[in-house]
Amino acid sequence: MKKMKRLVAVLLAGIMALAMLTACGGTPGTPGSSEFETKVEQAYMAKLNETFGVNFDNDDAIKKLAVDYLQEVSGTETLNKDTLWKAEKLSANTVNEVMVCFDTAQSTNEKYVKFYYEANKAETITPDKMNLDVLKATWDVVKAAAASQNKEVELTALGVGAKTIGDKTYVAIGLGMKVVQ
Q1: What is the CA radius of gyration of the chain?
Q2: What confidence score (pLDDT) does residue 1 get?
Q3: Please, what is the angle between helix 34-52 and helix 129-148, to 10°?
Q4: DSSP 8-state symbol, 24
Q5: How far does Cα 175 stand from its chain's mean position?
Q6: Using an 8 Å Cβ cutoff, are 26 and 169 in contact?
Q7: Between the N and C ends of the chain, which has fewer C-beta atoms within 10 Å?
Q8: What is the structure's pLDDT at 33?
Q9: CB proximity list for 141: less than 8 A, separation 6 or greater
Q10: Are 131 and 101 contacting, i.e. CB atoms less than 8 angstroms apart?
Q11: 13-18, long-range: CB within 8 Å, 24+ apart, which pairs?
């Protein structure tokens, strides 16, 4: 009888430990799982390609810069014009730049409230058009500034990074640029 009680106790402890570990990874396709982050990135990449009229894959370097920057600014809910963007100079003529997606309804010119998806509101992933337009407008300004200096700049890549922090999945979008003249 003692052996049976010990065996049952060990089995119950094992089942409880297994149940606890099973919940840690999140259900595939839900916010917080790498599968959900991938779906967010794919939705944004499709819209980025449409917005820019190109057909790029999600650039690994831009994605890494985006995810790293989201992690870096994770302690704050709002950003300003200086912290909304992060640039990484790859060489004298090339740079990757990412922008944290912000809530266009709550943000002002001085305060940018980070945009995110929540688990209970994430049935569909709809990329925020205003954020895509801001990135495109930035690209147009860069091209115009280069042209004013008799230079040409080329769009070399587009990228998206999604990062779940707590129960919120944040997004940063970016582009790669190269001066060709």
Answers
A1: 21
A2: 47
A3: 50
A4: G
A5: 13
A6: no
A7: N
A8: 52
A9: none
A10: yes
A11: none
Question: Taking Cα atoms as reference points, which of 161, 147, 25, 49 lies closest to residue 99?
Answer: 161
- Rounded to a whole number of angstroms, the distance between the first and last alpha carbons of the chain is 85
Q: Are strands 94-100 and 168-179 parallel, antiparallel or unpaired?
A: antiparallel
Tokens 């990329």 found at: 127
CA angle 160, 65, 155 (to 5 degrees): 60
Give bridge partners of residue 169 from the DSSP assignment: 117, 164
Write the secondary structure of 113-145 as one string of H (helix), E (strand) and C (coil).
Answer: EECEEEHHHCCCCCCCHHHHHHHHHHHHHHHHH
For 115, which DSSP code? P
* Distance from C-alpha of 35 to C-alpha of 28, rounded to nearest angstrom: 6
Q: Is the pLDDT of residue 179 over 70?
A: yes
Residues 6+ apart with CB under 8 A from 152: 146, 179, 180, 181
Q: Are 115 and 171 in contact (CB under 8 A)?
A: yes
Mean residue pLDDT of the chain comes to 83
Gap between the Cα atoms of 130 and 102, Å rounded: 9
Question: Longest C-alpha distance within the chain, in Å?
Answer: 89
Say what the pLDDT of residue 77 is. 85
Which of these, 32, 30, 43, lies nearest to 132 by C-alpha position?
43
